[in-house]
């Protein structure tokens, strides 16, 4: 049986700007149809990683491939199958929105006019307006429309919501991703970098957290929410003596105790229960809380 | 059908949806033949990946709870379990065992536990009756 070719495969990628290492020995694989998140703080190496996929930067060591192809050797074949929204969006400022979209469409084999119209209306964008007079958020919206309409197999988004206001961010998630995936359900792949994780909570089905160029954690989202738990306990008198080495983080406050657990939740709960707490509760961590907990520990 | 997704429950999102549809079917909030929301609008409303909704629906379909009519959408099936009686009993036994373990830890004795089961089954019946009388009222 043939295993399907991964949408993205990064193996031991390293890239440095002069002596500043931006990405170090990074490996990850994105299977087709996934919505994959690359989470990291500013300067963690997200943009550098993405630029290597697009042949905007050449890996100094390691390998990247997109649908099994090396972006440096098969640049056109790779770019035909993906659309990219960079962190800084720039258009020719004298062109109108309409002209810009037509210009970008001219490079593409396909262009879904219906989706284009739908999104222009949803974002209340005036096609006659020149891109130079648009706000930063509106320019990002135009870039997103231009990325979705060619209906490529892969969408690479670098911090797509960072310049947008909260309402538009919601719209982005709801409409742009929905419109993109709908055309070929189960097969369109999204690779998105962000530090605004809450907005992507329900969309991301797998993620890698990178910190100072290195991958710190790669997990499936459902599994992550099952593994990372916040456990709260309150005792009648003072806190008992407890072995809490299995916890990722411990906070104590009077009779109260709060633990963050990574995988050892059941064991810790059992240990707390033996001391008959007055109250004991557990909840899953959200992806953003997992991000914070991972980087702080 | 209005879903409540809780990212803090630790339960996979698609399973939360599966459970809610099963509960709605059991209580009569969702009736046989009734349409489920279509995938894309639902995914947008819940702000989840459309693949998650699709996964929940295909799980329900393999369980025989719903059926997909091509081009028309998903519908709740009549008399839905496709599984044999022994299998159904076995599945339920596992769930009951878990509840019994939980009861033990919470120091709920046998009588009280059995009483609680009766109470909960009555509550579900009441809900179902309420949904049925609602239907009578809705009828012109």
Give a structural overview.
Chain A has 297 residues and is of the alpha/beta class. The longest helix of chain A has 17 residues. Chain A has a six-stranded mixed beta sheet, sandwiched between helices. In chain A, strands 11-12-10-13 form a four-stranded antiparallel beta sheet. In chain A, strands 2-1-4 form a three-stranded antiparallel beta sheet, covered by helices on one side. Chain A is elongated. Chain A starts with 7 loop residues before the first strand and ends with a helix. Chain A contains nine helices and 13 strands. In chain B, strand 1 and strand 2 form a beta hairpin. Chain B has 140 residues and is mostly helical. Chain B has a two-stranded antiparallel sheet with strand order 1-2. In chain B, helix 1 crosses helix 3 and helix 2 crosses helix 3. Chain B contains five helices and two strands. At the A-B interface, helix 6, helix 7 and strand 13 of A face helix 2 and helix 3 of B.
- Based on CA atoms alone, the radius of gyration of chain B comes out at 17 Å
Helix content of chain A: 25-40%
Mean pLDDT of chain A: 90
**Most extensive interface: pair and counts?**
A-B, 28 and 22 residues
Beta-strand proportion of chain A: 25-35%
Distance between the termini of chain B: 22 Å
Give the ordered list of helices and strands of chain A. EEEHEHEHHHEHEEEHEEEHEH
Q: Provide the helix percentage of chain B.
A: 55-70%
Silhouette of chain B: globular
What is the percentage of strand-forming residues of chain B? 5-15%
Backbone shape of chain A? elongated
Q: What's the story with the biggest beta sheet of chain A?
A: 6 strands, mixed
């Amino acid at each position: 049986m043939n295993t399907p070719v991964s949408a993205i495969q990064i193996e031991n990628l390293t890239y440095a700007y002069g002596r500043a290492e931006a990405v170090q020995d990074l490996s990850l694989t994105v299977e087709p149809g996934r919505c994959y998140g690359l989470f990291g703080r500013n300067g963690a190496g997200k943009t550098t990683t993405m630029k290597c996929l697009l042949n905007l930067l050449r890996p100094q060591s390691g390998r990247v491939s997109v649908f099994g192809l090396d972006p440096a050797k098969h640049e056109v074949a790779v770019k035909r199958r993906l659309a990219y929204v960079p962190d800084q969006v720039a258009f020719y400022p004298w062109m109108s929105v309409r002209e810009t979209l037509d210009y970008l469409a001219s490079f593409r084999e396909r262009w879904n006019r219906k989706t284009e119209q739908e999104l222009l209306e949803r974002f209340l964008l005036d096609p006659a307006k020149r891109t130079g007079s648009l706000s930063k958020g509106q320019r990002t919206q135009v870039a997103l429309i231009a990325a979705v309409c060619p209906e490529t197999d892969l969408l690479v988004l670098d911090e797509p919501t960072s310049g947008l206001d909260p309402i538009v961010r919601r719209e982005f998630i709801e409409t742009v991703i929905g419109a993109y995936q709908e055309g070929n359900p189960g097969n369109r792949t999204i690779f998105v970098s962000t530090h605004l994780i809450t907005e992507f909570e329900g969309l991301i089905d797998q993620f890698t957290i990178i910190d100072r160029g290195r991958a710190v954690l790669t997990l499936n989202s459902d599994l992550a929410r099952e593994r990372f738990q916040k456990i709260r306990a309150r005792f009648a008198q003072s806190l008992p003596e407890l072995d809490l080495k299995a916890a990722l983080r411990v906070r104590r406050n009077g009779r109260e105790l709060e633990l963050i657990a990574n995988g050892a939740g059941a064991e810790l709960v059992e240990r707390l229960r033996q001391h008959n707490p007055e109250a004991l509760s557990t909840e899953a961590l959200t992806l953003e809380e997992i991000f914070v907990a991972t980087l702080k520990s | 059908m209005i879903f409540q997704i809780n990212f803090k429950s630790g339960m996979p999102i698609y399973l939360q949806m599966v459970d809610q549809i099963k509960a709605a079917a059991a209580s009569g909030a969702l009736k046989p033949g009734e349409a489920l929301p279509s995938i894309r609008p639902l995914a947008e409303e819940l702000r989840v990946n459309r693949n998650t909704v699709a996964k929940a629906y295909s799980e329900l379909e393999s369980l025989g709870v719903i059926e997909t009519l091509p081009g028309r959408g998903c519908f709740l099936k009549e008399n839905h379990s496709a599984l044999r009686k022994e299998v159904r009993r076995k599945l339920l036994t596992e769930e009951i065992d878990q509840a019994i373990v939980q009861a033990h830890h919470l120091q709920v004795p046998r009588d009280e536990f059995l009483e609680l089961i009766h109470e909960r089954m009555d509550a579900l019946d009441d809900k179902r009756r309420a949904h049925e009388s609602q239907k009578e009222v809705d009828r012109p």
